[in-house]
Design a protein that fits this description.
Blueprint (H helix, E strand, L loop, with lengths): L3 H6 L7 H8 L2 E6 L4 E3 L7 E7 L2 E6 L5 E7 L4 E2 L2 H6 L6 E4 L3 E7 H10 L1 H27 L2 H11 L3 H4 L2 H8 L3 H8 L1
Antiparallel strand pairs: 1-8, 2-7, 3-6, 3-8, 4-5, 4-7
Helix pairs in contact: 4-5
Organism: Tenacibaculum platacis
Protein name: Crp/Fnr family transcriptional regulator
InterPro entries: cNMP-bd_dom, cNMP-bd_dom_sf, RmlC-like_jellyroll
């Protein structure tokens, strides 16, 4: 049975057993409990995480302490504060576990080393970055042009499992609506 990370990578590039062993040697495993942070505002983020088990949210707090959810991430998704990770500046967001989670992570140094030594992985991350930019553009456009009901329906269609795993108040925050509005959309 193939390692889940190998299956994930091979959706974009092919790897020999030796190449995958080399890739995997750059990763480490970490487990976090529900409500533990991966990233807190002000951290200098040194790791990019691939979720093997669990669900997380990334968010920021406004000047009034209100939480604004940027994204959710589940099994086989990548997450970090990319600005902090790439520029090595203080994070502006939080990433918090919504469930007990397990991750494979790669440090910035190991990712740079891996991509310079194995150009296939450079292509892999370039393609993943493009997909991430597309998803971000779609999210921004949805927030700007779609009604709350349309955003709700789209999220339900794309990620129905989120509704089983994430509290409704967090879904409401992600959609930019109140909990009461979400209840009306849901009926």
């Amino acid at each position: 049975m193939k390692h889940p990370l190998r299956k994930h990578i091979e959706e974009i590039i092919s790897l020999t057993d030796k190449e995958f062993d080399f890739v995997l040697s750059h990763f480490e495993t970490v487990k976090k409990r529900k409500h533990q942070y991966l990233v807190q505002e002000g951290d200098i983020v040194k790791k990019e995480f691939w979720i093997t088990q669990g669900c997380v949210k990334s968010y920021f707090l406004d000047e009034n302490g209100k939480e604004h959810i940027l994204r959710f991430a589940m099994e086989h998704w990548w997450i970090t504060d990319y600005e902090s990770f790439v520029k090595q500046i203080p994070s502006t967001i939080y990433i918090d576990c919504l469930e007990d989670c397990e991750f494979l992570y790669i440090s910035y140094e190991n990712r740079e080393k891996l991509t310079s030594e194995m150009h296939k992985m450079e292509r892999f991350w370039a393609k993943k970055s493009k997909f991430g930019r597309i998803a971000l553009q779609k999210r921004i456009l949805s927030l700007l042009k779609n009604s709350a009901k349309e955003r709700y329906d789209l999220l339900l269609e794309q990620y129905p499992q989120l509704f089983q795993r994430v509290p409704k108040k967090l879904i409401a925050s992600y959609l930019g609506v109140s909990r009461e509005t979400l209840s009306r959309l849901n009926s």
